[in-house]
Amino acid sequence: MTQRAMFPPHQSPPATPNDRDGAGTAALVLALASYMLTTVNGGFFLVIPVGIAAIVCGVVGLRRAKRGEASNACMARVGLVLGSVITVPTACFLMWLLAGLYGAYA
Fold first, then answer.
1. What is the pLDDT of residue 42?
2. Which of 13, 49, 59, 95 is the most exposed place for a label (fewest CB within 10 A)?
3. pTM score of the predicted model
4. Which of 77, 85, 67, 88 shows the shortest CA–CA distance to 28?
5. Is the separation of the CB atoms in 65 and 74 below 8 Å?
6. Under a CB-based contact definition with an 8 Å cutoff, are residues 84 and 59 in contact?
């Protein structure tokens, strides 16, 4: 009499390629962080460096997605756009503010 296996043989899931989604995710997280910094007292001056980091990570993430190395092009694109929309007006406002302060004391 042959014994029948109680459970089917173990099958491992198919191996997935190593996606490099970190840059796109970082772009979105940094863009949201720069948005939140606009509301924090004193964090207004940190918006520009964090926003620039979001823009750079978004560009890197989009390039990786275009080459097929990453699968989160939408996250990278949203991080890039949101980082740009927050950083550019903030930089313009700070330049206007500093120019006004410099003119007042000159």
1. 82
2. 13
3. 0.78
4. 77
5. no
6. no
- How far apart CA 54 and CA 38 sit, in angstroms, is 15
Q: Which of 54, 49, 67 is nearest to 24 (CA)?
A: 54
> Mind spelling out the 3-state secondary structure of the chain?
CCCCCCCCCCCCCCCCCCCCCHHHHHHHHHHHHHHHHCCCCCHHHHHHHHHHHHHHHHHHHHHHHHHCCCCCHHHHHHHHHHHHHHHHHHHHHHHHHHHHHHHHHC
Residue 3: both structure tokens together: 């014994």
pLDDT score for 5: 59
**26/41 Cα distance (integer angstroms):** 24
